[in-house]
Write a structure and sequence with these properties.
The complex is a heterodimer of chains A (281) and B (157). Chain A has 281 residues and is α+β, with helices and mostly antiparallel strands. Chain A has two domains: 165 residues, Uridine Diphospho-n-acetylenolpyruvylglucosamine Reductase, domain 3, CATH 3.30.465.10; 105 residues, 2-Layer Sandwich (Enolase-like, domain 1). In chain A, 32% of the residues lie in helices and 25% in strands. In chain A, helix 10 packs antiparallel against helix 11. Chain A is globular, with a radius of gyration of 19 Å. Chain B is α+β, with helices and mostly antiparallel strands and 157 residues long. Chain B has two domains: 72 residues, Roll (Ubiquitin-like (UB roll)); 75 residues, [2Fe-2S]-binding domain (DNA polymerase, domain 1). In chain B, 37% of the residues lie in helices and 13% in strands. The N and C termini of chain B lie far apart (40 Å). The chains are: A alpha+beta (281), B alpha+beta (157). Chains A and B meet through helix 5 of A and helix 1, strand 4 and helix 4 of B.
Chain lengths: 281, 157
């Protein structure tokens, strides 16, 4: 018999999860669609299920020093509305889904679902954000870059939950998030791109860029980024063809029902070029 | 089996359906509240929009478990309000209803929008209704209807 549980508090959720494996459901906006059968029939979640959406302990968001700590059950809309949420994160979340989904979907769910087209993952990787995983044995912090290892694959242990997402905030002077999809709202991305930089007196002090939906996980190259730090903006402009070439080698888009490899590659690199060119404005 | 309690259109209800049942199916099949429509069943059309704790959500994506202790309102409950009367009039004045299939969802999304932002700009209305598809009107009349309601209903939201 498959068990469906609504833990009455966070502790109970951790205890249950330690006893046997459960499918974790937060807002449900991905899982309820992925496992639906037909009208009138409960969705087929296959395993034991823990419904976590109502855990009030995980519904907080706070700025602690230079970090934004987002409780795992905060809805996208709550994060979007919060005054401490950075403008880049707001821009990305504002492009995700639609109000009817943002009111219930969570960023932790976006991470747990580990879709290559998860829009929330792109800015999170750009910030070097990490998740705090908790089990009855204790907590550990894992960078989201290391947490997601492939489509729908994470390194979460059976008895662990994402408790919060920690975003180390940065003072960027330039930032952009672009989502390319078939519709303004509710589209699953063909390509997404986030870029950010800090420029002081014409010198690049920090630069980061990441692509979504062009590989099995988000693509970001610290090696390429670090090679640009300390350069002037005009040096950066000269280096654009080389940067594009390096990133071209790192992305491996696929053909699917939403787009094709050729388009994705072209658009991803054009978005990068536009971001880099705009830094000189 | 666990019994789920929530407030539906102002009344406390108890349901003992499986927790992984879609809220949409509970509303339509258990309570016969068929004003809430199933369009796409995957969160793209907004025909199944209802309010949970006064915020618009796609009821096709919500497991019954997640409404435990919440307040749910459908078009049938909302139509008893003054705000609904005003919206109905504005939608009629502007010709914002043709086949009507999307209309309950549009109305619920409008209520959610005006509740959080009583005087939205055209751009804010477009974002507020971005999850709701209408294949008849071309949206302009719906946007005008929301503008008319927000103007005439000053103080109501």
């Amino acid at each position: 018999m498959v068990k469906h549980c609504i833990p009455s508090n966070y502790k109970e959720a951790l205890v249950k999860l330690n006893e046997e494996p459960y499918q974790l459901v937060a807002g449900g906006t991905d899982l309820m669609v992925q496992h639906r059968l037909w009208g009138g029939v409960p969705v087929d979640l296959m395993n034991h299920v823990l419904f976590l959406a109502n855990l009030s302990e995980l519904k907080s968001i706070q700025k602690q020093g230079k970090c934004l700590r987002i409780g795992a059950m905060m809805s996208l809309q709550d994060i979007l509305n919060h005054p401490d949420t950075s403008s880049l994160l707001k821009k990305a979340i504002g492009e995700m889904a639609s109000p009817g989904i943002r009111h219930i979907a969570t960023l932790a769910g976006n991470i747990g679902n580990a879709s290559p087209a998860g829009d929330g993952l792109v800015p999170l990787l750009l910030y070097d954000a990490f998740v705090v995983l908790e089990s009855i044995d204790g907590t550990r912090e894992v960078r989201i870059q290391d947490y997601i290892i492939g489509p729908r694959q994470t390194i979460r242990k059976q008895n662990e939950l994402i408790r919060e997402i920690v975003v180390p905030l940065k003072d960027f002077t330039n930032e952009t998030f672009v989502k390319v999809g078939g519709r303004k709202a509710d589209a699953i991305s063909k390509v997404s791109f986030a870029g950010a930089a800090r420029i002081e007196e014409g010198i690049l002090k920090d630069i980061r860029f990441a692509f979504g939906a062009v590989y099995k996980t988000v693509v970001r190259s610290k090696e390429v980024e670090e090679s640009l730090i300390g350069r002037t903006i005009s040096e950066l402009q000269t280096a654009i063809p080389t940067i594009k070439k390096k990133m071209d080698a790192l992305i491996h888009p696929i053909d699917d029902q939403r787009s094709n490899k050729k388009y994705r590659r072209l658009v991803a690199l054009n978005l990068l070029e536009t971001f880099l060119k705009d830094l000189s404005l | 089996m666990k019994t789920i309690e929530f407030i539906l259109n102002g009344e406390l209800v108890r349901v003992d359906d499986p927790l992984n049942t879609r809220l949409l199916d509970i509303l339509r099949n258990r309570f016969k509240l068929v004003g809430t429509k199933e369009g796409c069943g995957e969160g793209e059309c907004g025909a199944c929009s209802v309010l949970i704790d006064h915020k618009v959500v796609n009821s096709c994506m919500v497991p019954l478990a997640n409404v435990c202790g919440k307040t749910v309102m459908t078009i049938e409950g909302y139509r008893k309000t003054t705000r609904y009367n005003l919206l109905e009039e504005a939608f009629m004045n502007q010709g914002a209803v043709q086949c009507g299939f999307c209309t309950p969802g549009m109305i619920m999304a409008t209520e959610s929008l005006l509740h959080s932002n009583p005087h939205p700009s055209v751009e804010e209305i477009k974002i507020g209704l971005s999850g709701n598809l209408c294949r008849c009107t071309g949206y302009q009349m719906i946007i005008k209807a929301v503008l008319e309601a927000s103007e005439k209903g000053a103080g109501l939201w």
